[in-house]
Amino acid sequence: MDQHQLVLIIAVVAIVVVAVLGFVFSRKRRTQNLRERFGPEYDRVLKKEGKVTRAEDVLEMRTKRREKFVLHPLTEATRAEFAERWRIAQSHFVDDPKASVSEADHVVIQLMQTRGYPMADFEQRAADISVDHPVVVENYRAGHAIALRESRGQASTEDLRKAMVHYRTLFEELLGDVFPQRKEARA
Description:
76% helix, single chain, 2 domains, 0% strand
């Protein structure tokens, strides 16, 4: 083997090593960015999908879908109207917890729609909202799950109270103009 062939082999090996390192680094950066952006939602999707690449593809698809939405700030009048509707829904809890939870769900859906989120089935709404609100989306899922249990007669009044807390957390975040805020539900 002459010196030119040796130099060529070394150059090819170096290029391959750099390409592999670049790929590994870009995958790690992708994972880190998605973990930071989605927080606990990253772990939930990973558990559901079973593989990192599949979970990350799902989260990136959500992000691309969300980028197509035009989210609207609320006017002070609209914000006040939704705040009043929420206050009324909460005030009905003592007399009719079931109806109050249903009303809360309805107010949250209407607020999402007013903001500019498309209204699809629940899972798609939750996926869409997770891009901007990755922490509180779990509250939305928990509130919705309790509402579904209630529709089957399997939720206690304490469960319904928790549903209201979950809905309120998402409602408060949607009512604000900052996207995303990361906060946990207050019990």
